[in-house]
Every structure is written in structure tokens, then in C-alpha cells.
Write a structure and sequence with these properties.
This protein is an alpha/beta fold. It folds into two domains: about 10-225, Rossmann fold (3-Layer(aba) Sandwich); about 240-400, Glycogen Phosphorylase B (Rossmann fold). It has helices at about 25-35, 60, 90-95, 95-100, 105-115, 130-140, 155-165, 175-195, 205-215, 255-275, 290-295, 310-315, 330-340, 365-380, 380-400, 400-410, and strands at about 10-15, 40-50, 65-75, 120-125, 145-155, 200, 220, 240-250, 280-285, 300-305, 320, 340-345, 360-365. The chain has a seven-stranded parallel β-sheet, sandwiched between helices. Strand 8 (about 240-250), helix 10 (about 255-275) and strand 9 (about 280-285) form a beta-alpha-beta unit. Helix 7 packs antiparallel against helix 8 (about 175-195) and helix 13 (about 330-340) crosses helix 15.
Length: about 425
């Protein structure tokens, strides 16, 4: 950027409060905020449902914003009489969820009064939910922007389809139809932004290719998830007869819950039987549901959310990502590599990250393959060390915050 060029005003809208130590989606939002602030004046607007814990913005993020507002609101209840089966499908048809979850006009009018700037050079919407609110603001002529971008993060319609395929047997037929209807509408919304916005941002080339196949003229840009590369702390080696496995992930997110349950029910008993030493599993993540909390026993610890993941990465032997559905790319894998820990993942868990099986990660699909990968690391310290070292080199070269920030700035600013 030329030194005499005016700094651009960027409105960043997000459905979550960005956080360097929060959930995966909050970490990506924080990385975007820090990156954009390197080349522009950022006006951050967080618009979130009141039943979500908005919290405050961390100091290091607050100081990079020209202004920062959190707007919490209640989602509109259904007004129709059709609230109970077999009428819930009709209720969804008459009063779509995607319309009810938007803030009211009164809330948006109050918001407009708070903003220091009304005409922006760029609007950067983090995830579709934020873009939908931005569209409201545009239609009400409360603000304007010369260029409009939306970060899909993952392709939500595909992620939802994958989750529904696994959940289908556990939900009723009517609920299944409702979820299919929601997914159909979500696809239409995604197509709108692909056609109408100046750019759509995704995590990986895989997602980019899927979107280009839908709208060949769409401007789709890849901005991967990233990690801040820090110095490694030295850890004393435990006994060779003691192995600690770590899972990290937001446990209110269905793909993570499903992955943990699949691992504990199918993989864990086989590993316990095969290993003669002391085997431990730490499950770390925000908002664990009851079926995850109930897994805790002498060898399995359910930690919940923590302020810092560093102690858990530093004391584990390797990290698992037993993901069977969902989308996007997993920050948990990049974080584990940053801490120089070996990773075992499914193919879907590592989707969108250009890893190489047996070189910087182990990939196992299905029970037997995943068991084999985990057991190999449990008994082979040299293999663990080599994978961990190569993983650290890989993430430092391609997924460091500094490198990824340049990509976002090039696209948006």
C-alpha cells in the first residue's frame, strides 16, 4: 500500500466474538480481524443471538479496532399455530428459520446510530449468518459498501448434509424433511452470494472447486485457517508405559461429538486391550453435552472448555481427529502440529489441509485403520517424533498467521 493512500474503512460483521483462545470459529474470526487491521481501519460489528455467550473482546483484539459493537438479540418465536407434530414441517414452510433468526428492524436502527461510519470501502462478512444481517442493513439503506465479501468458512450446506446423513436414523421423518428443507434454502442463499458479491472466501482449494462448479463466474478465494507459530516448550518424557491421547474440539458441534463417541465406543476398547501400559484420553472442548460428560472414568477425562490449550498439547503424546462429518478445515490439526505433536485423523478430518499420510500425519478411515494408526504411535516413539517434527515444519511453512494474513489482505484490501 502506498504511504500516501488513505486507509480504507472496513466493516467486519461476525456472528461470534473473535477470540484467540475460543472455539475454532472464534479463532478464525480473530485471525481475520488481526489481518484486516494490518492494512485498514476495521469497524467490528458482532451480531449474535442473546442465548449465546457473547462475552467481551480480548484486549489485543480491541486495540486493533477503530470501533467495536456487540448486538445481542432474541430470535423471533414462531407466530403460526402449527408448532407441534405433524404440523412442524408446515410451520417451517410458513415461517422459515433463516428469516426468524434475523434481528428486528428496531435493533438495526439502534445499531446504525452507534456506527462512526456509514459508508464503507469494504464490508467483510464472516459466515453466511453475518452476511444475511448485512443484507438487511443494505436493504434498509442504513449503511453502504463499495465492495462486499463473505467468508463461508466451510460450505455450510455440505457440512449440514454430511451431519444429516449420520443423524438420519436418530431423528423422525418429519424432522428429517425439515432439515432437508433448511438445507435447500441454505444452498439458495449460498448461490446468491456467489453470484452477487465481489468475493467469497473459503478455507481450502477443495471448497473453492466445489463452489466454482456451481457458479463458474464466481470470485472464490482461498484463505486457510492459520496458527500463530510460537516457541516450543520442552517437556519431560513420561514412562514408555504411559501414553496420553488428546482430543480438542467444540463439543456442542455435532461432528466433534459424533467423532468422540465413535472413537470411545469403537476404537478405545481395542486400544485398551492391545496396550499393556497406562493409557489415558483427555477430551477438551467447550460445552460438552451429557453423553460426552458421561464418558469420564479412570482413564478418560472430560475437561470442557479451558483458557489455554497449551498444557494439554504439551503433555499429550499424540492428537486424534476422528471426524466423520462436517466441513471446512480443522484448526485443531494445525494447532497440534504447531505444538509438534503427531496427529491421527480420518480423511474427512484432514480435508482441505495439504497433509501427506505417513509423512506429517497418519490417516485412518474405519475402525481397524484408525486403531492401527493409533497403536503404531503408542508403541513407536521414533515414529511419533518424526511425524511431529514434519508436522511442525509443514504448518510453519504453509499455515502460519503471517503468511495467511497476506493472502486475506491481498483479496480484501
Amino acid at each position: 500500500m502506498e504511504s500516501n493512500e488513505r486507509l480504507k474503512d472496513i466493516l467486519m460483521l461476525s456472528p461470534v466474538v473473535p477470540s484467540l483462545n475460543g472455539k475454532g470459529v472464534q479463532k478464525r474470526a480473530a485471525a481475520h480481524l488481526l489481518a484486516l487491521a494490518r492494512g485498514a481501519r476495521v469497524h467490528l460489528l458482532v451480531i449474535t443471538s442473546i442465548d449465546e455467550n457473547a462475552g467481551g473482546l480480548e484486549h489485543e483484539l480491541t486495540e486493533v479496532c477503530r470501533e467495536f459493537h456487540v448486538i445481542s438479540y432474541c430470535e423471533e418465536p414462531r407466530k403460526s399455530f402449527f408448532k407441534i407434530p405433524p404440523f412442524t414441517l408446515l410451520a417451517e414452510i410458513l415461517e422459515p428459520t433463516n428469516k426468524r433468526v434475523l434481528p428486528s428492524i428496531d435493533i438495526l436502527l439502534e445499531l446504525e446510530k452507534k456506527l462512526l461510519v456509514k459508508k464503507f470501502d469494504v464490508a467483510f462478512c464472516f459466515r453466511i449468518r453475518a452476511a444475511n444481517v448485512f443484507q438487511q442493513l443494505l436493504e434498509l439503506k442504513l449503511i453502504s459498501a463499495r465492495k462486499k465479501f463473505v467468508d463461508f468458512d466451510d460450505i455450510e450446506s455440505i457440512a449440514d448434509q454430511r451431519s444429516l446423513a449420520i443423524e438420519a436414523g436418530n431423528i423422525g421423518r418429519e424432522q428429517y424433511c425439515i432439515e432437508k428443507l433448511k438445507n435447500y434454502r441454505l444452498k439458495k442463499i449460498e448461490l446468491y452470494y456467489l453470484k452477487k458479491y465481489d468475493g467469497v472466501v473459503v478455507c481450502s482449494n477443495i471448497d473453492k472447486n466445489k463452489l466454482i462448479a456451481l457458479v463458474s463466474s464466481a470470485q472464490v478465494y482461498v484463505v486457510p485457517n492459520s496458527v500463530i507459530i510460537s516457541d516450543l516448550s520442552i517437556r519431560e518424557r513420561k514412562s514408555h508405559q504411559e501414553i496420553s491421547i488428546l482430543f480438542v474440539g467444540t463439543l456442542s458441534y455435532y461432528p466433534n461429538t459424533d467423532g468422540v463417541l465413535w472413537f470411545v465406543e469403537n476404537i478405545w476398547p481395542k486400544l485398551m486391550e492391545m496396550f499393556s501400559g497406562n493409557l489415558n484420553l483427555n477430551i477438551v472442548g467447550f460445552d460438552p453435552p451429557k453423553n460426552i460428560v458421561s464418558l469420564a472414568n479412570g482413564n478418560i477425562k472430560v475437561v470442557g472448555g479451558v483458557d489455554s490449550l497449551a498444557p494439554y498439547y504439551e503433555t499429550c503424546d499424540f492428537v486424534i481427529a476422528p471426524i466423520r462429518c462436517g466441513g471446512g478445515t480443522r484448526i485443531k490439526i494445525l494447532e497440534a502440529m504447531c505444538y509438534q505433536r503427531a496427529v491421527v485423523s480420518t480423511t474427512l478430518g484432514a480435508e482441505g489441509i495439504d497433509v501427506l499420510d505417513r509423512e506429517n500425519i497418519l490417516i485412518g478411515d474405519g475402525v481397524n485403520e484408525f486403531v492401527e494408526c493409533c497403536f503404531s504411535l503408542m508403541i513407536n516413539e521414533e515414529m511419533r517424533g518424526n511425524l511431529a517434527l514434519q508436522g511442525r515444519k509443514f504448518v510453519s511453512a504453509y499455515y502460519s498467521f503471517d503468511e495467511v494474513a497476506k493472502k486475506l489482505l491481498k483479496v480484501v484490501v
